[in-house]
Amino acid sequence: MKKTGFAASIPFIVLLVLFAGLPLVLNSRTWIDLFVTIVFNMVGAVSLRLILLSGNLSFAQGAFMGVGAYTAGMLAVHLGLPMWLTIPLGAVMATIIGLITGWPFARLKTVYFSMGTMFMGQALMLFVSAWKKAGGAMGLSRIPALGAALKGVAEGIGIKNYQAAYFVILLLAIFSLVVMYRFEHCRVGTTLRALAQSEEVAASIGVNPTYYRLLAVGVACFFIGLMGGVQAHYMGTISYSSYGMNMTLWLIMYMMIGGSGKFIGPMIGAILISIVQGIANLMTSLSGSSNSAGFVAFSRWLGENSAYTPFLTAAVLLVVAYLLPTGLVGIPDTIRENKAKRADKKEIAAMTQKGGEA
Amino acid sequence: MSENILEIKNLKVMFGKSIAIHDISLKVPKGGIVTVIGSNGAGKSTTLNAMMSIVKKTAGTVFFNGEDITNEPTQNIVQKGIALAPEGRHLFPYLTVQKNLILGATQRKDKDGIARDMEFVFELFPILKDRLKQKAGTMSGGQQQMLAIARALMADPKLLCLDEPSLGLAPVVIDDIGEKIREINKTRGTSILLVEQNVHLAFGTAQYCYALQVGNVVAEGTTEAIRSDDVVKRAYFGG
Question: Residue B79: its chain A contacts at CB < 8 A?
Answer without folding.
Answer: 206
